Amino acid sequence: MDMKRVFLKLSGEALAGPKKTGFDEDTVKEVARQVKISVDAGVQVGIVIGGGNFWRGRTSDAIERTKADQIGMLATIMNCIYVSEIFRNAGMKTEVLTPFVCGAVTELFSKDKANRYFEEGKVVFFAGGTGHPYFSTDTGITLRAVEMDADCILLAKSIDGVYDSDPAKNPDAKRYDTISIQEVIDKKLAVVDLTASIMCMEHKMPMAVFDLNEKDSIANAMQGKINGTIVTV
Ligand code: UDP
Fold first, then answer.
1. Which residues bind ATP (predicted)?
2. pTM score, two decimals?
3. Which helix H or strand E contains 65, and what residues bound it?
4. How far apart are alpha carbons 94 and 75 in whole angstroms?
């Protein structure tokens, strides 16, 4: 896999560290340290962050789904602003783009603008998902990675790859070194949600899954060294 322009997905829970909710500064500082190694080496890095450390649209029955999803999208923006600031503190230049206007808080996404920022050596945060309810940040990252001609999507997870069954339940579960996106879809392995999987297949966007908590895993992945699973197209 080429690694000139890579998109990294962090789940909201990943930012929360052991607390599982809110932010864990040490966890995010460690992510920043590793991303900086790649940025300093000239890799263009786009970041998408989930919102699960604050809110998930589908978990509330009390309010209408569209509104619940809007809260979820705002949660992803809070996450991006936080991580962007920690990245700046670590010595990187950053921009936070959203698919809808947030006043002076973020900038409105456009491909030209994002390209310009990448060329300036900035880490670009694609916050707010797709901007539409009933989608996820999985679809958000796929959409932006395809649109921005990224080389691949890196999924830093709390598990070290894609397994044929849940290793928490099945001690004999086997990890794939590589697997095709078609097989991921056929076997319902849920690397990313189905909408995002279909889009990756249609637009030939490879992915890699690895353990966020393994030492130097992000820095290694951005150099093409994946200790996990590569999802081929
Ligand atoms: N969300 C949305 N549209 C998007 C991206 C996210 O409505 O394009 C909302 C949705 O409510 C989701 C929440 O934001 O539950 C957090 O996003 P994430 O992808 O972390 O959700 P998860 O898949 O963990 O529920």
1. 9-12, 52, 56, 163, 166
2. 0.96
3. helix 65-89
4. 19
Sheet of 5-10, strands arranged across: 107-108, 94-98, 123-126, 44-49, 5-10, 152-157, 207-211, 228-232, 178-180
Residue 17 falls within a domain, yes or no?
A: yes
Tell me the CA–centroid distance for residue 53 and ligand 1, in Å.
11
Look over the chain and give the mean of its residue pLDDT values, rounded to a whole number.
96
ipTM score over 0.90, yes or no = yes
Give the C-alpha distances (Å, rounded to integers) separating 219 from 30, 92, 198, 210.
Answer: 10, 15, 28, 11
The finding on whether 79 has its CB within 6 A of some atom of ligand 1 is no
Q: Whose CA is nearest to atom 21 of ligand 1?
A: 136
Would the CB of 129 count as within 6 Å of ligand 1?
Answer: yes
How many structural domains does the chain have? 1
Q: Is 135 touching ligand 1 by the criterion CB < 6 Å?
A: yes
Cβ neighbours around 180 below 10 Å, total: 14
**Lowest-confidence pick of 17-26, 35-44, 161-170:** 17-26
Query: Domain of 132?
Result: 5-158+217-228
Is residue 56 domain-resident?
yes
Q: What are the two backbone dihedrals, phi and then psi, of residue 113, each rounded to the nearest 5 degrees?
A: -65, -45
| Residue 5, annotated as binding a ligand | no
